[in-house]
Amino acid sequence: MGQVTYDIDMLRSFSTGIALGSYARAADRLGRSTSAVSAQLKKLESQSGTPLLRKSGRGLELTDAGETLLAYAHRLLALNDEAVAAVRGTDLQGRVRLGLQEDLGEAVLPEALGRFARAHPKVRIEACVATSAVLRERLALGQLDLAMFWDVGLDAADQHTDSVLRLPLQWIGPADLDALDAPWWQQLQKVGRGAQGDLQEPIPLVVVDAPCPLREIVTTTLERAGLPWRYVFTSSSLAALWAATSAGLGLCVRTPFGLPAHVRTIERTGTVLPALPQITLALRRASSEPEPPVQRLAELLTESVQQNVRVRVP
To answer: Where is the HTH lysR-type domain (predicted)?
Structure first.
């Protein structure tokens, strides 16, 4: 076989179809006909010399070769889009005032900021890492151009805000949960296994300082399940919450996104912990028509989050 050069458009169709779960939706997103996208996929498989997709029920799933190509497709598309943005945006100047929540900062900022800085070296970024309540307030006061935060009540009619993704909230405990001998945890498991009696020890909660929408979600969920609870640790610092959770002081509630190694999600099987709802990761712009640097950074943040979720969230 001679040298193969993959076509960026074919890789974009391939990647978009996987991301949307349908190549018909990918065709609509990319402004092409379904037959054109199908022809691109056939040519991509022909170039690869191996099937990239296989039937699974009524749908399709990636083969091992498809998984490998998809990972490279993401990198090639990112580099291509970065090159286009760099060529078109070399003269962009000014600043972008960006707000992020703490768990997003560590997981999202390095990649997105690196790509943005290479494409727009003359644009200055001023970052604010804070709680969702603080970020909303600063947006309202005109102190931020762009913010990404977890939201429980996203307004679909809000033209300034996009829903980046939705993830389920999870109960979070220490990574070495099996070795945790705290009385509240032993009782939680004992009652969950069907032992007679109710919880005598309230479920200890590790939460962000008020105001925080997760506090109400968690306590309302526990009360509806008839389970006692109490706050054992509160802080405005997410790092402090992780430390308290890791030490076994109590349970925290977050999404599985951006968890540090010393904590982990808890399987509810064998416990009395109730199911929790989903939460939306929102991206809000201060203006419905943002300046080009703001719009580009918003796109990079969205791409980085979605890629991070594919890699890290089970």
So the answer is: 21-63
**Does residue 3 form part of some domain?**
no
Which tokens hold the place of 14? Answer: 């391939």
pLDDT band at 107 (very low <50, low <70, confident <90, very high): low
Does a structural domain hold residue 2? Answer: no
CATH number of residue 252's parent domain: 3.40.190.10
The pTM assigned to this predicted structure is 0.66
> Distance from first CA to last CA of the chain, Å, rounded?
37
